Amino acid sequence: MTSRLMIVLALIVLGRASFAQTKINRIDSLLHSLNEKGKLNGNVLVAEKGKIIYLKSFGIANEASGEKIDKNTIFELASCSKQFTAIAIVILKEQGKLSLDDPIAKYLPKLAFYDKITIRNLLNHTGGLQDYLSIMDTVFDKHKIAVNDDIITIFARLRPALEFSPGTQFKYSNTGYALLASIIEKASGESYASFLKKNIFDPLHMQRTFVFNRRLHPRKIDNYAFGYIYSKYLGKYLLPDSIEKAKVVFWLDGVVGDGTVNSTVLDLLKWDRALYTNKLISGTDMHQVSSPAKLSDGTYTRYGFGWKIEQHDDYGKVVRHSGGWPGYKSDIERHTDNDKTIIVLQNHYNAAEPTKSIRSILYNQPVTSP
Fold first, then answer.
1. What domains sit in the chain, N to C, each tagged with a CATH number?
2. Which of 204, 217, 251, 255 has the greatest number of CB atoms lying within 10 Å of its CB?
3. Where does the pLDDT of residue 3 fall: very low under 50, low under 70, confident under 90, or very high at 90 and above?
4. Active-site residue set
């Protein structure tokens, strides 16, 4: 190799390294600015082809003790939990314990009057069910903690009309994913938490990931991020349990399937890597998980099984989900054509959402402030 060629190759390598470092510096500058303004409190992980290029912790995990967040801090994932519920259903399908086109009444006989809704409809939000949160808000005794059976019992009693015929429209449904958790329990003979642990978390060595109902089954967890809401009136961060309008965290604490999975950014990267393999389910089924659903009129939604699906000219295919619950914000974004991953877990409900800005930096595009 000539010395001139060696110099050219060295300059190319240095140029790439410099560009990569510039990206990291821009991400770091953005996030530090948000943190200084009180708009970021949590963990941010960015990876390319599975290699972590950025991982940093910001802020406090426990306001009472002053414990700081670190890379192993555990956060409530809120609706990002849905992706685990969906994969659990597909695992049961591959085990021969259910079919995606089974009517839900086969497993939830109290809801036999919803005879046209299938498991597939629940997975891709095309079932037409009304949202259980608003229904429970009017009829449930909020001195108690609701569990999934309470939702089923109340729906069986009230028989809320469908908002549309199954398969004809898309409407995001927490109800559907709560019912999927109950179907998992019925088909497997195990609790939702136990099935996920045995079939997803343990095989992937996600040792700090679990289903957690903090008010229904309280226990001490080391390095846990308590969720907070900022009170302008009092000038401090409060647990949502102490805020009247946020007490849904108490009386809906026992409901699983649409939320209640807790995890860390490092465990979620393990999850991301597994989704490129056949460790949990077959490649054919994984393709179905991350493909948009087809409606009865032939049009497509922008949702698969537990994932929102986007197609961009600049980024390629983006498979993502966000989550929000009083005290928490979460975001998991996977660029499957380019193998880039962005994971943001926060325990301040008032926080900004920096994922799209990080995405722009990764592709060397202009950044708009979150």
1. 3-362 (3.40.710.10)
2. 255
3. low
4. 79
pLDDT, tens digit (0-9, with 9 covering 90-100), for 288-347: 999 999 999 999 999 999 999 999 999 999 999 999 999 999 999 999 999 999 999 999
Q: pLDDT value at position 8?
A: 47
Of 60-69, 80-89, 335-344, 360-369, the one with minimum mean pLDDT is 360-369
The CA distances from residue 368 to 34, 46, 313, 364, in Å, are: 13, 18, 19, 12
In angstroms, the CA 173 to CA 133 distance is 10
Q: Check residue 212 and give its pLDDT.
A: 98
**Distance, CA of 312 to CA of 356 (rounded, Å):** 13
